[in-house]
Amino acid sequence: MFTLGETLLVYNGLVLICLFFLTGKKNPRKAYIAFFFLAFFAAIRYDVGADYDGYYYDVRNVKEVFDGGADSFWGQLQLIAVGPIFSSLVYVLRHTSYTILYIVAIYSIAEIILLYKVLDKYNALFWGAMLYVISCLMFNVWDLLKQGLAIMLVLNAIPYMEKRDLKTFSIYVFIAGLAHYTAWLFFPMYWVCKKQFSYKTAMWIIGILFILAQFGAFNSAAAFLTQSIPYYSESYSEHVNYTISGETTHDASYIFTVCWYVVLITLAPKRLNIFKILMFIGACIYIMSGGNLLMDRIALYFSSSMLLYFSEVYNNLPKGSLKKNTVLVMLFMMFALFDIRIHAMTYKGSTPYETIFSEECRQEVFRSNGDE
User: Is the entire prediction scored with pTM above 0.90?
Assistant: First the structure.
């Protein structure tokens, strides 16, 4: 198992790789190298991500269904619960040993390919990759796996929302829903994002929601919402953060994230109307989540749009201006928070880093349950 120092070296090394290969004049070959490393360290990880062992047991259960229980009610329910893409991959790979390793590698490579594809469209390779890492979205994608793929597919749908290409937009979002059903919540954005963004109204709403969140106004509502979803409530009833909101509204990281979203909405030029709307919706859901993982994860579909648009927001700011310097200070704070989260060894199961070449992997041992 990697030590904390070795883990810091891996994760900060990814930041340095992005800095080295993606700065300066656009160079496709150097960009391929940077994104190769992002895919490589994601694909060879083992037991990295709080839900990693859960996916291991999902694979095992789905294999058992295909071996004889696919026609039973509970077998069908299991296949529905994990989603069509995940169950299809398990079916194809069901006769392999260590199937979870292949599943994780396929998802990881697909996610980075999709990320590269959409960032390249927006000429946002450097800032998109940097924010992907230091904002800890990378750790969220590693943790979520299925939803991580859905997020990348949704990001690839956004350009077609801008072009008003409903057919292609729908195809991407539909496939994203096959990876994780929550992605279908993004369908209405095709029409919502046609509306004109009102900055003053948005700031009033964000301010009111933030104040209410500090007093726990959304705790009961979030708990009721998540506990009303049959499969979700049964699967995660033992994990308080899946059903209870209000656990993190006073945390520095929570407050910083809200401030970061507000700054992006404020500084984005008017022509980025879609970005402002997406970030506003993401900010509202995140504020109300306050630690509720279902709501927090849904917010990522919207807030992840910053990977596409931040480069344009940043380049639009006058050089040496107070606004630009404020953004730079916040980026430095984000990087510091990135390392603090790694040091804490509690964020999304991202620390310590481990690979498929470890003894733990050979013995199929997980840090969450010893030798189970």
Answer: yes
